[in-house]
């Protein structure tokens, strides 16, 4: 391949925790072009003394705009194209938009940027039916204090569900990328903080009431996130293996309920197709769980 001076290059590194690091080298010619485009955009709304709004020379605008803001906006020009090329060149199927870090951005030199993302992990379900059936047999065995010897314990649907979840999490091999765990844990923590704010409680007060430190709560959420993500991926794989479909009537019903709950809340356009795909995936996972429960 011929040398291309304006070509953004990328190096991929797969980490043991499932994360994927993408290190970009951005030629300074590309940086300069993005910076020029950024300043032109800022100039349209710039209010500089002695000039009409949007009419100030670019040099004057550059003097007034903080360098950090120019860099940040320049990255918004650079990164989408750089990421798209890296994904195509390396045949990646990324699961989340990367978290980017600017490693170096010296004047006149190529920039170095690191992005951290991941792909959805492979699920090796093994003989999940045998594992679940074995767990049900073990759960129904007589134990002292549970009736007469020889009697079988009858599990409720809720108990069977817990047996299934515990069994597949323990027996199905899967490595959850750290970035997925962090994002889900962050989401759970954000939801907690939102609820506490509505109740007028400070996080410190809540932590004191449950006898935990902030790092303990974060660790709890990380563990919960890991299990929740693993469960979703495993059930999705089982639904595929067992060719479990979502009932169109259930999807339509869920769509109607979701639309009714959203109605009037805001004026943002709704992604109907995206919502439908989400509900279908949820119902397929529920179907996979019901399939496993019936093995007991």
Please explain how this structure is put together.
- By secondary structure, the chain is α+β, with helices and mostly antiparallel strands.
- It has two domains: 9-118, Trigger factor ribosome-binding domain (Alpha-Beta Plaits); 128-255 and 269-293, Trigger factor, domain 2 (Orthogonal Bundle), CATH 1.10.3120.
- It is 57% helix and 9% strand.
- The chain has ten helices and four strands, in the order ββαααββααααααα.
- The protein has helices spanning 28-45, 58-64, 67-89, 128-139, 157-171, 178-199, 203-210, 214-241, 248-262, 272-293, and strands at residues 9-14, 19-26, 99-104, 111-118.
- The chain has a four-stranded antiparallel β-sheet.
- Strand 3 (99-104) and strand 4 (111-118) form a beta hairpin.
- Helix 4 packs across helix 5 and helix 5 packs across helix 10.
- The longest helix is centred in the C-terminal third of the chain and has 28 residues, at 214-241.
- The radius of gyration is 27 Å and the shape is elongated.
- The termini are far apart.
- The model has no long low-confidence stretch (mean pLDDT 88).
